[in-house]
Design a protein that fits this description.
Layout lengths: L14 H41 L6 E2 L12 E10 L5 E5 L3 E5 L4 E9 L5 E10 L7 E6 L5 E3 L4 E10 L14 E10 L10 H10 L1
Parallel strand pairs: 1-7, 2-10
Antiparallel strand pairs: 2-4, 3-5, 5-9, 6-8, 6-10, 7-9
Length: 211
């Protein structure tokens, strides 16, 4: 006698359940993708800043580690100075001269003046770049007020210097060798004020004793 065929007791998955399962997979995949992109974006910020400083990309000037190794060349180039203040910072900010002519390879000091027009202490820090953007890698800054936060008291006026030179390597760059003008641009942005740290009683007494 032939045994009966085995009966398939499995139940077909309803269409709705399959759809929910597929949606869950898609949502999980999208969430993983977004998390990966956000992480990559945060990682890209320091890398982008390092890349700009290393290559002069986007007009980022370079920080010189030494003075020029040779005498200034006879070739001259005009350097223009631009100044801006972002909203929220009550400062007046302007260059001493809007344009000077320098020899390539010559170390030059230029001055800016800044005034806090508010009746309170304010703090700002400058961001900078040069134009044309491709010249950034040849604009070498030896010293600059943009490296640190600047705090000004009510009505305080301050003169700030930037020391720089134009790298003679500029003339060996076929794409930039004919440049006759470089514009150095600064923009001051407000820095949120930091609340003073509490002083311990013993430290207060010592300070009073020193007066």
């Amino acid at each position: 006698m032939t045994p009966p065929e085995p009966t398939d007791v499995s139940r077909p998955v309803p269409q709705r359940a399959r759809g929910l399962r597929r949606d869950t997979y898609v949502a999980a995949a999208c969430g993983l993708f977004v998390a990966t992109m956000v992480g990559a974006a945060y990682a890209a910020v320091p890398f982008y800043n390092w890349f700009c400083r290393a290559t002069g990309f986007n007009g980022t000037t370079q920080v010189a580690t030494a003075l020029p190794s040779s005498e200034p060349l006879g070739r001259k180039i005009a350097v223009r100075f631009d100044s801006n203040v972002s909203g929220g910072l009550p400062w007046k900010f302007e260059p001493e001269k809007t344009e000077i002519e320098v020899r390539i390879g010559e170390v030059v000091t230029a001055y800016y003046a800044v005034t806090n027009t508010a009746a309170r202490t304010t703090t700002g820090q400058a961001a900078y770049n040069v134009a044309p953007l491709t010249v950034g890698s040849y604009f070498q800054k030896i010293n600059c007020f943009c490296f640190t936060e600047q705090t000004l008291g009510p009505g305080e006026k301050r003169e700030m210097a930037v020391v720089f030179y134009v790298d003679p390597a500029l003339l060996k760059d076929s794409d930039n060798s004919n440049a006759d003008t470089i514009t150095l641009s600064y923009t001051f942005y407000p820095i949120r004020e930091v609340a003073p740290k509490p002083v311990a009683a013993g430290e207060t007494d010592r300070r009073k004793g020193n007066l």
